[in-house]
Amino acid sequence: MAKAMETICIMCPMGCPITVTETDGVFSVKGNSCKRGEVYGIGEFTAPVRTVTALVRTKNGGVASVKTSSPVPKDMIFDILDGLKKITAPKNSRIGDVLVKNVLGTGSDIVVTGGN
Ligand code: SF4
Questions:
Q1: Which domains does the chain have, with CATH numbers?
Q2: Confidence of residue 91 (pLDDT cuts 50, 70, 90)
Q3: Which of 19, 29, 40, 42 to mutate to test the pocket of ligand 1 (most atoms within 8 A of CB)?
């Protein structure tokens, strides 16, 4: 039995609407204008991932922006965000500092991207 999913490719500003179909383990992608869309569509169908961005408190009462160093499984985003509510960035955090290594075993680090 075939399963299908419609989505928008976000790999470039073109935003091609694509349809991914899987039949007995064989994938077909339609609507993509290039190979990247095919790879993206199959990834979205089988194991969607996202880069997480958030704000965390800093020791001086401000906030610092952070992000995952690489995309993480989509179904772990809320667990990661819950964990980020519990951490405080050091007073002198700088862009590129790693606040959490290998967050929740994803292989991705939480990295400072800005703040005060
Ligand atoms: S399929 Fe190719 S052209 Fe279309 S949005 Fe994705 S990367 Fe861009």
A1: 2-46 (no CATH), 53-115 (3.10.530.10)
A2: confident
A3: 40
pTM exceeds 0.85: no
Beta carbon of 29 within 6 Å of any ligand 1 atom? no
Mean pLDDT confidence for 59-75: 95
Task: For residue 49, give the H/E element and its range.
Answer: strand 49-50
Pocket test for ligand 1, best of 19, 32, 44 (most atoms within 8 A of CB): 32
Identify the pLDDT of residue 116.
Answer: 61
Ligand 1 in contact with 37 (CB < 6 A)?
Answer: yes
| CA-32 nearest atom, ligand 1 | 1
Question: CA 77, 78, 84: angle at the middle one, nearest 5?
Answer: 90
Tell me the pLDDT of the chain averaged across its residues. Answer: 95
